[in-house]
């Protein structure tokens, strides 16, 4: 397992908040609770009493109850979760795109924190932290040995408090301390630029509360820079998902009014719904539709959607809707396959359940649970082929994932394990430079972006000769 995690760490470009989830933040009041199975509840109470009285040392009663709740929910599927006070606060931060910290996107390299990018305008940006800097100490604590989550927690804190980061800058071969004052950071989940005259690139990294506002503003800016865009690349690679309303709104920006974007179906009446490309389906009460300010050309501009194995949930909704309506050409690799919706059910002011309440379906009725969106055009990661793709986890690799209901494939995990072992053998080559890490998305070296632009220009595309559709695994042991 250690080797697997070591190699997988090389894929990490930043700390992504909120993992692989499409969420509805609506709370539904329910007074008709199901009958409680008395015998089983008595067993639970008896177990609680035994642990409290007979365990080797005193146990915290609240911790026992919290752990029981967490275990009850986590046994259902990989996306349902119990939020205690601390985790609920962190979850709400992840969906709003706001947190208190220094403002850097990070990864791990050789056991220390590597700065992927300072967030523009953040305290870290103003202090002069640069991409590629290594953070070796946080206050008096060496980073070596800390996990990414622990490092992130130490850099976050209360507003107006200070943290001292010890930075090693390779290009200058020196270490130096930086004292940074924490403040509220707003994460930009949308990036965009005109790549060349007539062609633009727009990347969505996650669907948060502010994503559609940011998306509309960035798209408006692109058209101000170049009013005669001939083509647009919508980049959803490694987008783990987020808010369902955001996926509906982004799809609606490109689709005709009122067409079906996605439908959901579950056990209760509230989970059975069809979402259309209409403000009523993605706007909250009292808000102003941010899509209104977009130019009419957005509805007809030639569009390519880039996806990969890390595109999940809300990003799959967008890719599936645009593909089914023949509004865009989907290029890249088969997506993650997370076709379920999670809903937040508050238990108190500070705690909640995030539970799977529905499966979602593309406009043509496809369930992509454990399968994903199959691209129209398959692309390797680089001109030399795929280096990292087989290492990325997918929905079908998660324990207790919901089944799709199609054919069984017992060879899938064996093939994936063989591919993983092969790539683990190459880990040292990646570190010593024999194998280069993937270039930054949107850069001049981005092979898949170059192929997407070729498609928009009706030029030859270097289609993958090895990638094929993944067969489904519906093993009932999951």
Automatic annotation (TrEMBL):
SMART domains: PDZ, TSPc. Pfam families: CtpB_N-like, PDZ_2, Peptidase_S41. The keyword Protease applies. InterPro entries: ClpP/crotonase-like_dom_sf, CtpA/B_N, PDZ, PDZ_sf, Peptidase_S41A, Tail-specific_protease. Gene3D superfamilies: 2-enoyl-CoA Hydratase, Chain A, domain 1, 2.30.42.10, 3.30.750.44. Residues 401-437 are annotated as: Disordered. Keywords: Hydrolase, Protease, Serine protease. Coiled coil: none annotated. CDD domains: cpPDZ_CPP-like, Peptidase_S41_CPP. PROSITE patterns: PDZ. Residues 88-170 form the PDZ domain. The keyword Heme does not apply. Residues 401-434 have a biased composition (Basic and acidic residues). Belongs to the peptidase S41A family. This is S41 family peptidase. It comes from Ideonella lacteola. The lineage of its organism: Bacteria, Pseudomonadati, Pseudomonadota, Betaproteobacteria, Burkholderiales.
């Amino acid at each position: 397992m250690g080797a697997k995690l070591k190699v997988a760490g090389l894929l990490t470009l930043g700390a992504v908040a909120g993992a692989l989830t499409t969420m509805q933040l609506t709370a539904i009041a329910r007074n008709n609770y199901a009958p409680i199975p008395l015998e089983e509840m008595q067993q639970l109470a008896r177990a609680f009493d035994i642990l409290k009285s007979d365990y080797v040392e005193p146990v915290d009663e609240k911790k026992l109850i919290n752990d029981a709740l967490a275990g009850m929910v986590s046994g259902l599927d990989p996306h349902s979760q119990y939020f205690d006070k601390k985790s609920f606060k962190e979850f709400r931060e992840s969906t709003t795109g706001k947190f208190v910290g220094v403002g850097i996107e990070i990864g791990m390299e050789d056991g220390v924190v590597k700065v992927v990018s300072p967030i523009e305008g953040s305290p870290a940006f103003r202090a002069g932290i640069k991409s590629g800097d290594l953070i070796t100490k946080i206050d008096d604590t060496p980073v070596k040995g800390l996990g990414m989550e622990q490092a992130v927690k130490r850099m976050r804190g209360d507003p107006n408090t200070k943290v001292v980061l010890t930075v090693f800058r390779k290009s200058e071969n020196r270490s130096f301390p930086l004292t940074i004052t924490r403040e509220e950071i707003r994460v930009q989940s949308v990036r965009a630029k005109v790549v060349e005259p007539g062609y633009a690139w727009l990347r969505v990294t996650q669907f948060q509360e502010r994503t559609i506002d940011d998306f509309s503003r960035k798209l408006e800016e692109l058209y101000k820079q170049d009013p005669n865009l001939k083509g647009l690349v919508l980049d959803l690679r490694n987008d783990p998902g987020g808010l369902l309303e955001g996926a509906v709104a982004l799809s609606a920006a490109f689709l005709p009014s009122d067409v079906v974007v996605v439908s959901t179906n579950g056990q209760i009446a509230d989970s059975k719904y069809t979402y259309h490309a209409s403000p009523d389906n993605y706007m909250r009460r009292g808000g102003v539709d941010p899509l209104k300010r977009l130019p009419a050309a957005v509805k007809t501009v030639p569009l390519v959607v880039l996806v990969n194995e890390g595109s999940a949930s809300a990003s799959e909704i967008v890719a599936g809707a645009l593909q089914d309506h023949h509004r865009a050409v989907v290029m890249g690799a088969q997506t993650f396959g997370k076709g379920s919706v999670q809903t937040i059910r508050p238990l108190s002011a500070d705690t909640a359940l995030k539970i799977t309440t529905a499966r979602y379906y593309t406009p043509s009725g496809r369930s992509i649970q454990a399968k994903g969106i199959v691209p129209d055009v398959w692309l390797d990661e680089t001109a030399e082929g795929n280096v990292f793709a087989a290492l990325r986890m997918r929905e079908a690799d998660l324990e207790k994932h919901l089944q799709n209901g199609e054919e069984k494939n017992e060879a899938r995990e064996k093939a994936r394990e063989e591919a993983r072992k092969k790539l683990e053998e190459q880990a040292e080559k990646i570190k010593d430079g024999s194998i280069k890490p993937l270039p930054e998305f949107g850069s001049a070296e981005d092979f898949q972006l170059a192929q997407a632009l070729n498609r928009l220009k009706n030029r030859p595309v270097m289609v993958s000769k090895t990638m094929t559709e993944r067969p489904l695994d519906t093993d009932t042991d999951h």
